[in-house]
Amino acid sequence: MILLYFYKNLFDVGGREEVGTYDLLKMALNVSATRGNLISSNIANVNTPNYKAQRVEFEADLKKAMDGSQLTLRTTNANHLGGANNIQPRIVENSQNSVKENGNSVDLDIEMVDQATNGLYYQALTAQVNGRLKMMNYVTSN
User: Fold this and answer.
1) The pTM is what?
2) Under 8 Å CB-to-CB from 83, ≥6 apart: which residues?
């Protein structure tokens, strides 16, 4: 019964004051999935005139929230992480420079590197989640 409760509530972020490891892993997995979708979209539109490449910005905002350098939030518990549960990924458009004459700003080499990096990042995150689940399963079964 306890194990079922943990699995059911493993990634439930809503309504809680604190951000735990699982919540951060969930946010990171969601950001990685969003980033993968945007990279795929950028690659698919590599020849579309006036298409502007899009990026996901998340890690810098999360770091600011974790450091407390973004906003000073009132915490009611010493374990609070400074409002990291309010951080959402931002999708930004690269409108500053065009790689091609048709106004398209997608650089295929950069997109391919970003795709490989994001794939490794996602694999590392899923390995972390799997390790945590195995640990939780071990603790609850023994």
Assistant:
1) 0.69
2) 65, 71, 73
